Queue: 3 jobs
Job 1
Amino acid sequence: MVVYGIPNCNTVKKSLDWLKAHQIDFEFHDFKKKGITAEKLNDWCNAFGWETVLNRKGLTWKKLTKEAQTNIDTQEKAIAYLIENTSAIKRPVIEKDGQAILISFDEDRYAQTLG
């Protein structure tokens, strides 16, 4: 299992703490340091929808002009933006056996999905 995120994000911290508390092994991929591929983002967008993968609540998104925000209106444009601005990816994303299974943190969904 791989957890994608950035270590200083509170939501990522909650997720990692939950996984550790439930003794679930994982590898952490810091996409601030290691980057992320368009292919990986495309997989996540196909799994969750590009509008879910794009974090519109974060500071990175809010710094954009309204015009720039409005212009990001397709999966292709969202992926191009997210490659350049990894902080705007909703996090964490959890993959199991190469498949994206969870995004963000919700204790009930984690318990249901990861048991």
Job 2
Amino acid sequence: MLPKCPHEGCNSELKIGSCSKFLTPRLMEIMSQRIKENAIPVSEKVYCPYPKCSALMSKKDVLESSKSTFIRAEISGARKCLKCKGHFCINCKVPWHSNMSCYEFKRRNPYPPAEDVKLKNLAATHMWRQCVKCNHMIELAAGCFHMTCRCGYEFCYTCGAEWKNKVATCSCPLWDENNIVDHDDDDDDED
């Protein structure tokens, strides 16, 4: 999100042009990129599935761009990355599987790529969770077990059950005290 003015009581958003006086060119580039990312609504975000690209795009923009390449792109799910121009399936989030339905592709490719297996193992080791809606990996660093993914989906970090209207649909505890209370100060109190 755009940073606010640091003066107390001022809620003005900083403009990128006014920040160029005190930010390095690299930080200006990062800020510009974050502004572009923030302009895309969460439900509209899609990432290129090619690891060397992974560009963030809006579903609307990528569909419009793909219409010139694919006949009936809306129906087929075929898309073309705006950055690398690679073809991919918007439904499966994988490189394009021409002449094959999504169901057939999944049936013929039941085993995930080695990189995906490594990520799943790393996630299991670190107890990360995956959003069931968009498959984004999430780590609980601190706080309660109510998660809100970047796609907007809300779920329980413990069991994965959906939260509806800010209410849990499971009976898991809402938090673990170790994730809420900072125990670093306890050592100082033992004198």
Job 3
Amino acid sequence: MAKMMVSPMQCQMGFPSNSLQGRPMITSKMWNSLLLNAQRPKTRRGISAFKVLAVKSENGVVSRLEDLLNLDTTPFTDKIIAEYIWIGGTGIDIRSKSRTISKPVEHASELPKWNYDGSSTGQAPGEDSEVILYPQAIFKDPFRGGNNILVICDSYTPSGEPIPTNKRHRASQIFSDQKVIDEVPWYGIEQEYTLLQTNVQWPLGWPVGGYPGPQGPYYCAVGADKTFGRDISDAHYKACLYAGINISGTNGEVMPGQWEYQVGPSVGIEAGDHIWCSRYILERITEQAGVVLSLDPKPIEGDWNGAGCHTNYSTKTMREEGGYEVIKKAILNLSLRHMDHISAYGEGNERRLTGKHETANINTFSWGVANRGCSIRVGRDTEKQGKGYLEDRRPASNMDPYVVISLLAETTILWQPTLEAEARAAKELQLQV
């Protein structure tokens, strides 16, 4: 914030003489207090439409909402606030509510189960609306600080059955299989997202009702005419690090107003927990900034890149000597279950996977080395070293990470095609395995 220097003469100008009658003049002490408040470092920054300001006077203090939000309760109580987070009825909407816990906890198993009104989230009928939350993973709360936590939960009926939108339960079964455990599956997930102006639902930085210049200058760019929303991206980056999310990087994307961050490498179901928590944090930050978060895979039709959630994947045998042959066998299996994966890789993905803008056509499976126009990309280093990982470029930005990571493990580790199907696919893909 820039300082504004005002001379005594300027302070005396522009006020009718009768407007000051009966009112105390601003003393030097009060003026210094105002300046100190303006210069005080802020712990929260944002493009918020709602600000609470306060002036410290000689007669008392007007409490600021910001002071209360940043209040550290640890010296006064052992109690903490746990924010229970779950996935709503659309399978992509995030819900949460808070409760007090008597003391700090180290693991989700120490937390009580809770319930919510499933009829209000599209997950239960009104006459039997109670849905039970099972705490599964905890993260430090970057908004409340202290010992307060964010709690990733999944949802069950009162009798203990997972509800249909609970994709974590099935994923946990796959990742509990000994064959999968032995392969130590690693995931690196690239979450793309678009920032929209609140009132017009148009990308941040775009002229209302109009378009910026063609794509080209915006990817990993710097400058006010090319980059829109960096403060949000940076705030999210730091908040994720604070929370304990395994975020590994971020960058501006090809379409202006679009960003990406990467989470991983993460092992097994942890990858899904970290992505969902990172999405929750991003929703909270955009809420505070007065910007709308979109995970639509093609937010703007036309000659603009869509938004994906590319998933990098490897197993223990892929990372060892001779792993390249294991990768090619995995690609073969993925080709045979292409439509099974596509059907589970996000809503609206057909608008993104057109064969243009660094995508493969949704109806055709393909793979290639260093080819971003393929369904599965293998890196140059992986080919050169004969081991490494593959990148599944098909998942949409709104995919459920529990579904994607468990499908990849199931298809490449647990599922075995017939010899005839394997031979036919190998010939079509020109794979020697």
